[in-house]
Design a protein that fits this description.
Largest sheet: 4 strands, mixed
Strand content: 5-15%
Order of helices and strands: HEHEHEEHHHHHH
Number of domains: 2
CATH topology of the largest domain: Glutathione S-transferase Yfyf (Class Pi), Chain A, domain 2
Structural class: alpha+beta
Low-confidence stretches: 5-12
Helix content: 40-55%
Number of helices: 9
Number of strands: 4
Mean pLDDT: 93
Radius of gyration: 17 Å
Distance between the termini: 33 Å
CATH class of the largest domain: Mainly Alpha
Shape: globular
Bound molecules: glutathione
């Protein structure tokens, strides 16, 4: 197991824990929680009653005008959007470790996977899971096509690198991609044909301080 914290005393150095507004079934929220756990930061989860529209309340809209989770409040700073949050956390609490890459080309590679996380990952595996877990209406054919292409690119990348997506070590690119890939079977997407992706999932799940996302039922495979 690898220890990734800049220093384990981060949690004790903070005046107050970070407040994490979340939905426990959201992979975007799990991404944030996983990263806070890996860094050893102290935080408190605040569950939003999204079924009753708490994420669209006047109070919550002041925190994120898009009315979406995750949002964190860290003292005077309120940060929304899962990628923005992990970048903020890496810079604030994890800067000794090269979470965003060490060189210009590594930084570019990490940024590329952050873009994939809010592009292909959100429109593919995350959307397919959304349909089953939250009953959302999605364009299934489009989401399946995007997912198939994404998994092929990831499998090829991880077969080449034999480790992580952007560099030889764990970066924000891996954190951004993990939750919705690991839980793709909840959207009817099997990872069985992708041994390099499954090894990468296991690698992340073996990290010190790893915390899992609450699982939802695995549904019949459609890809
Ligand atoms: N780009 C955002 C997307 C966040 C997102 O889609 N959150 C969902 C939960 S997984 C949400 O709050 N949906 C409610 C809505 O859009 O009204 C991020 O990365 O944080």
């Amino acid at each position: 197991m690898t220890s990734l914290s800049k220093n384990a005393s981060n949690s004790t150095m903070k005046d107050a824990p970070i407040i994490h507004y979340r939905n426990p079934k959201s992979g975007h929220c799990h991404k944030v929680e996983l990263f806070m756990s890996l860094l050893g930061i102290s935080y408190i989860n605040h569950e939003l009653d999204m079924v009753n529209g708490a994420h669209k309340s006047t109070d919550f809209i002041t925190k994120n005008p898009f009315g979406q989770v995750p949002v964190i409040v860290d003292g005077e700073h309120t940060v929304s959007d899962s990628n923005a949050i992990i970048v903020y956390l890496a810079d604030t609490y994890g800067s000794i470790y090269p979470w965003m890459g060490a060189t210009p080309i590594e930084k570019a590679r990490v940024q590329r996977w952050l873009s994939v996380a809010s592009g292909e990952l959100a429109k593919g595996p995350a959307a397919l899971r959304l349909e089953y877990v939250f009953g959302a209406n999605i364009d299934v054919a489009s989401a399946l096509a995007i997912t198939e292409n994404l998994l092929k690119v990831m499998e090829d990348t991880l077969t080449d690198t034999k480790s992580y997506l952007a560099t030889d070590s764990l970066t924000l690119g891996d954190i951004a991609m993990y939750s919705y890939i690991a839980h793709a079977p909840e959207g009817g997407v099997s990872l069985q044909p992708y041994p390099a992706i499954r090894a990468w999932v296991n690698r992340i799940e073996s990290l010190a301080n790893f915390i899992p996302m609450a699982s939802s039922p695995i549904v019949e495979c459609r890809l």
